[in-house]
Records
---
Amino acid sequence: MSKEEEGLSLVEIHGRGRALVASQPLRGGQIVLRDSPILLYPAFPLVSVDESSHYCSHCFKKLEPERVVQVSVSCPDCSLERFCSPNCASSAVSSSHSPWLCQSLLLIRRHSSSLSLSLDLQLQARFLLAAYNLALLNPSHFQTLLSLQGDSTAIGDETPRFLHSLISSVCATPPPPVGWFSLELSAALLGKDKLNAFGLMEPFSENAPRSVRAYGIYPKASSFNHDCLPNACRFDYVDSDNTDMVVRMIHDVPQGREICLSYFPVNQNYASRQRRLMEDYGFACDCDRCKVEAQWSDNDDNEEEQQEEQQEEEEEELMEEDVDQTMEAEAEGEAGSAEPEFPHAYFFVRYMCNRNNCWGTLAPLPPSSTTTPLIVVNVNDNDNVNVNVNVNVMECNVCGNLKNDDHT
Ligand SMILES: C[S@@+](CC[C@H](N)C(=O)[O-])C[C@H]1O[C@@H](n2cnc3c(N)ncnc32)[C@H](O)[C@@H]1O
């Protein structure tokens, strides 16, 4: 285990499978995991040459228009994939864009333009090719992929059958290694993708829905279970750094507590959370927030509106009270001291980004960043604010805004 993972232990929890729990008390902002993907694939259609030309096909950094002309390199064989540098191009040949994958993508692209495949199918085809490419190039990472949760039951019969026969009939040489390629394996792999793929998102914009740039399989982060009020959240810095994922604690937790992410933005209502978790991940969520919200009488058609109203009212009430005590108790795990009707309202006030349409989660900067004697952060794009050692700076994992934590 690396230093950054020292605070986590992998355990088995009945009804939840593998889980990560705090093996020591963890502090808000603490980095508990840094994970690199074993497999990445683009989130745009197979046939969309236009979109793919905006990103490096290896490191997924955005190619600024001037860089496309000056320094980017095209794959000499398919000329469809672009790389941000000769280095990325040469790394790709032995990994993400091997000659086998290059050839297979080319053939599938030709074929699928006449099939008008849905975007979902195109992305699943991309994943399958990337997974078989991994089997060829890195058998140990492929075994890791196979060890993740998810099998053919997560995906049904029709999609694997269709994609498997598409790949078999189109690819010049069967996916490697010889003898591995089978319908059962393809179905199991698609199940792994469904339960474990993380989206690397486009930068946030207030005016457009946020889209996914690429999907990745992060083997260690795949052990985090979901909670609708997570105590940790993930960050990535694809354009400024690399495709690694960093998981930071949102607030302090005691030793023994399970560390969970939310698999989607925390603002969704009870019914849509339950639907999504059942359809996409195959479980009914029974977290503390769901237990409370399941009792609400407004879980009907217009529940979204009603919940939002109720939430707003509760949040306002709570903000008017002296809420610090409530949350501090909750952060330390003293359940029961919060409002019985809506014990998690404080989470939204303190840990949900209030920027328009963002719905990101706020986590303190890692402790080392806040021990700098004086740092200047940009809050809400406009004001430069001096932040000193005693102030917690919270970072949004969606829009990247930095904000003073008024509750410290
Ligand atoms: C990414 S995996 C998480 C790790 C997984 N528990 C394992 O054993 O590898 C996602 C799967 O974990 C399980 N899971 C995640 N959160 C859960 C929760 N809150 N309650 C029950 N099962 C959960 C579901 O089976 C889900 O499809």
---
Amino acid sequence: MSKPGPLLFARERTDSTFEEIPIIDLKDANGSLTARRAIAEEILKNHGIPEPVISQAVDSAKEFFALPLSTKMDIDIHKSSNFKGYTALLGENTNPENRGDMHEGFDFGWEELYPSSDSAPRHDGAMAGVNVWPEHPPGFRESALSYYHAAIKLGKSLFPLFALALDLPEDFFEDKTTKPAAIMRLLYYPPQTGVVDDRVQGIGAHTDYECFTILWQQAEVKALQVLNANGKWIDAVPIPGTVVLNIGDQFARWTNDVFKSTVHRAINRSGVERYSIPLFFGSDYDVKLEALPSCVSEDNPAKYKVVTAGDYVKSRLEATYAHSKSED
Ligand SMILES: O=C(O)CCC(=O)C(=O)O
Ligand SMILES: [Fe+2]
């Protein structure tokens, strides 16, 4: 890392030929307006997700993934109508040119940690449906949801920064992220050693589907790489106490590519097991992803068909899981 700063504007960074991923210290984001306009597909320091919450979620993930395959397959994601539950090795394929991803996963979405009688039902359209939880290990749901809500809090604090970077009112995204359609994953990557088939990577080259992703990755296990504008893969080396933030396709569509989504992949050649936790922060599922007026001009006419966030995410998930559907 050269040095953490100066803070950069998203618009200046979208075609970036970065060689290292810049660090943004969020303690600066609470200060001056200038600092608050700083924005990112970056590494975030002082992100506010408490360390014990992270370690409990990771411990639960380790215990869950260590269960017998047949137990985990009880909650196979292919049985769910809204892509919730367990993904086995090679169960998904993020890059259609590849054969399948060498990771296991567990996916879930918004749910109150302590549901109350007045928890209003969600209207998730294409993505409607409940989470499915494993019976083991004990406390799995609580640790996963504790992390989820801490990451949601962080994500909500980032939307005003994105709004300011787009010259929008600071609260522009507030009523569009009331029950944010955030999907969280616990991921396990076995080590890939010896001769590795390039078409079977931990997770193949892809962009994420939502507005942005907050990614925690295990310290000391280098695996994640981000593609720069010169087509060069740059290591996103894990830095303790930080999370990675990257732009996803909902934001690319909404901003007419003023924010570009980041192509990334992960290959675990470290020789040891790796765990990571992405939280994909999307807008409410009924929001129409229509190019923001400030992002459309004669030189940059609207590029994308208008679609709701829910239909969009569902179509991407269908494509990702299609290759393994017929095997069930
Ligand atoms: O595990 C990682 O570092 C990346 C995960 C990822 O890109 C994803 O789940 O979309
Ligand atoms: Fe990703």
---
Amino acid sequence: MSTADNNRVRIFDTTLRDGEQSPGATMTSAEKLEVARGLARMGVDIIEAGFPAASPDDLEAVRKIADEVGNSADGSTPPVICGLARCSKNDIDKAWEAVKSAARPRIHTFLATSDIHMEYKLKMTREQVVEKVRDMVSYAHSLCDDVEFSPEDAGRSDPQFLYKVLGVAIQSGATTLNIPDTVGYTMPAEFGALISGIIQNTPGVEKAVISVHCHNDLGLATANTIAGLQAGARQAEVTINGIGERAGNTALEEVVMVLQTREPIFKLTTGIDTTQIVKMSKLISNYTGITVQPNKAIVGANAFAHEAGIHQDGMLKNQQTYEIMRPESVGASLSKLVLGKHSGKHALKTRLESLGYELGDDELVKMFERFKMLADKKKMITDADLEALVSDELYQPRELYSLDGLQVACGTMGMPTATVRLRDPEGELHVQACVGTGPVDAAFKAINAVIQFQNSLQEFVVHAVTEGIDALGEVTVRLQGEGETANVGLQPDQNQPRTFGGYGADTDIVVASAKAYLSALNKMLVASGHYGPPEKASTEAIVY
Ligand SMILES: CC(=O)SCCNC(=O)CCNC(=O)[C@H](O)C(C)(C)COP(=O)(O)OP(=O)(O)OC[C@H]1O[C@@H](n2cnc3c(N)ncnc32)[C@H](O)[C@@H]1OP(=O)(O)O
Ligand SMILES: CC(C)C(=O)C(=O)O
């Protein structure tokens, strides 16, 4: 097999070996087996299942994967199962013991070739390194036909020395030469040149596949991997979500989607079923507990989400204006238009229409103003927020009951109690006191005791809008009328309970909460035609 005899890039997944070297990423044997099954389903060519000499558990996990994933029952070609080993007989024996039951086993052995690693870590001379590579690659080859050799820290190694070591590895039976940028040090042009130099100068290189293995210390792992492939490498070593030692490895999903999306440039293919990518990303994130940053390419939660109005408008007109890949192509759910402070009228109108609200131009302008005001206070506007805004827009706030006074007693020494004094539409005052789980709950109960209109609290959000001890607290609440059904002409489902938003601001957060609650309740009363004073408004009664 020559270095560049075809345009097929082999995907070598090392999530279970280098990926597991991420601090805290340890997986159980059962989880590793599940991951290996997923990788095989996705079409990975080689699975580096572990480092069998690391522990008996690691060896067992690799053996199980070799048995169960490295053999196929239906006649299809199973992935190569690979075990990593230092250039030591003991490590190589353990790697072989672990992978030999696979239909296509591979031993991957490595030895550092950079001066700094040889001098300080290995305490070996260049000559000793060359001899060790000769001995250990030959030994691995005596056990297994498929041997991969990696000159660790190749990115910082003397290229002339590298050519020599790699030539010896080929002579000794290595069939894949993997070139690691172990500490993520190289620049894409440098790494590409390193690969070209190896292809041009290593004796016998045409007998081996050149592979690249990059780390992300400078955020260049994917760029370096692609540069290596452009220079003639035909195997890429990658991990799902880019997990791995320190800043991680090259992300599988990034390399595969670069090659697919920019196929006309590279003319390279992989055997990966890209629709499995998001599923595998979630599996790895769940098993390792390493969450994926929202803006991570391909698999981040925001990879196909659009918030800016101009982008959303473009997306609504033609998806390709702001998306270079279809979310379905990587198994992600459909593109999301997230409504927030940067959104515009096109996106708002479209979302309202999808909720069943056909607004006229003037109504839309009014709604948009309210929407922007809310978006300044709330990071994301949900469908429920929009429904509350529609209700608010139709039932303009009209103050029936006003807060005339509020007193609370709370702390750790007694029952949180609130006393409220409300003025009804006729100007009469009503006082109620209630206990609650806290002062806000007690205040809401006391308001309910005066107004006595059934509702349920759907949302309660507190924001501090200024800094310092005298911060102004803002509260928004959303109430749902119990048994109340929508009958406003715009609602899609006439049996949907309506929701009403309320807003209050005060330096006292309990007062702000009471104001917000009362404002939502007032809207609910207006909407339902309850204009009059309460039948049973009581004074100075304590309600528990
Ligand atoms: C770049 C990479 O990602 S390489 C893979 C790194 N992964 C791991 O290290 C995970 C698994 N490792 C382990 O479980 C342990 O390190 C073991 C079991 C392999 C070895 O443990 P120990 O015998 O206690 O050695 P320790 O890890 O402390 O030191 C490594 C030894 O291996 C030597 N060594 C390092 N790389 C190689 C190599 N490629 N070939 C031969 N020897 C090597 C070091 O020089 C050192 O030798 P010394 O003890 O004579 O100084
Ligand atoms: C063992 C080798 C391939 C490695 O993980 C590295 O150098 O980063």
---
Amino acid sequence: MTGALAVGIAGLGTVGAGVVRLLADHAALIEARAGRKVTVVAVSARDRARNRGVSLEGLRWYDDPVALAADTKVDVVVELIGGADGPAHDLVMAALAAGKPVVTANKALIAMRGSALGAIEGASIRFEAAVAGGIPVIKALREGLAGDRIAGFAGIFNGTCNYILSRMRAEKLDFATVLADAQAQGYAEADPSFDIDGIDTAHKLAILAAIAFGREVDFGAVHVEGIRGVSALDIAFAEELGYRIKLLGIARATDAGIETRVHPAMVPLAAPLARVDGVNNAVVIEGDPVGQIVLQGRGAGAGPTASAVVADLIDLARGRAAPMLGVAPQALARRAAVPMAAHRGAYFLRLMVVDQPGVIADVTAVLRDHGISLESMLQHGRSPGDAVAVVLVTHVTQEAAMAAAITRLAALESVQVPPALIRIETA
Ligand SMILES: NC(=O)c1ccc[n+]([C@@H]2O[C@H](COP(=O)([O-])OP(=O)(O)OC[C@H]3O[C@@H](n4cnc5c(N)ncnc54)[C@H](O)[C@@H]3O)[C@@H](O)[C@H]2O)c1
Ligand SMILES: N[C@@H](CCO)C(=O)O
Ligand code: NA
């Protein structure tokens, strides 16, 4: 048995304190599995006096995280500060420059700077915690499915959004009410925009797509829509039509290249992702020859996220090498990013129209002009002279045709508010 793996941790918030606690609580089993001790020797955070519920006795303290990377007694740097720039980025660059491996939970950093970091000669950087927290989805793709060709995957990667959508459905509440409550209870951030505008999901999707398809991390190519526009009315219609609305991150290999998109989607009740509720995350992967794999679990929180960070540390302690994105930098594939306009799928479209003769004829004429075929149509009740909801479900059609039709529908005099559009997925 070689000597202990000496760990330096920067950032002692939810995840950092969770990692210190897990390494202490499971010290014996981690040593047995790693073949050596994994020991925290140094830490850095902003407030030395703060009580984090974990003992920092005997650990070297650094006010400046970059100084922690220079500590010659630190073998591996764990970055748990967060953010694509600033101290987290400075620390990771300093650690890699010093030839030290890095473990991080920072999805923003990997999504925005992953390609540049991966290109650094000899860089060793692990980030299982960054995607779907405790679900070992990066290991599943990079190791477990290393022999498979991945056709695509779809997942629920943001617990905050899934919690909000689950409560909106179960309690028939609107978005603003549930968000305010989630903030009051401390689930959602005071500025929750990364979560609810889909950016956090897009970070995770960009990272996972790079590994699934062996190409560079391409955050800029991801089409991103969040959940602010999801209404209680559309959730009720989804229920009636046999769907659940989820914020999905989807990546697919098509003949034209790789499609990556984040948006609310209607998922049939029988599909694996439909029944994943609350703060849970889940991902459905399609591989050849393995077929379909479904992983579900906790995507956030101190324990689940620490579980992923510690697994990465054990890999390092074992001396297991793995290229950052699953293939060597020079072997990364160049595959085109497919624009959203080229996406093909089925759509749910809700219009608020004036209840008067001829309106449906006008609407269907627009759809006909753009070659869009309808699967079903729904209208409840009558309200002459007032606005009523009309729901249209299309057959598979091209996004560009749908977008053009919506522009024309929105301009019709009988259409009262901007049309609501939700894509239908089979995952
Ligand atoms: N909380 C989760 O459940 C979760 C899940 C997956 C990934 N992550 C990621 O893990 C990382 C940490 O998240 P968190 O929830 O623990 O955040 P947090 O806000 O609870 O903790 C951040 C820590 O970084 C420290 N810090 C900030 N600036 C610093 C500086 N200049 N120098 C030294 N320390 C500094 C803070 O003092 C704090 O201890 C983020 O990248 C986040 O996206 C979090
Ligand atoms: N804000 C994230 C945390 C985990 O990345 C979520 O709600 O899922
Ligand atoms: Na993970």
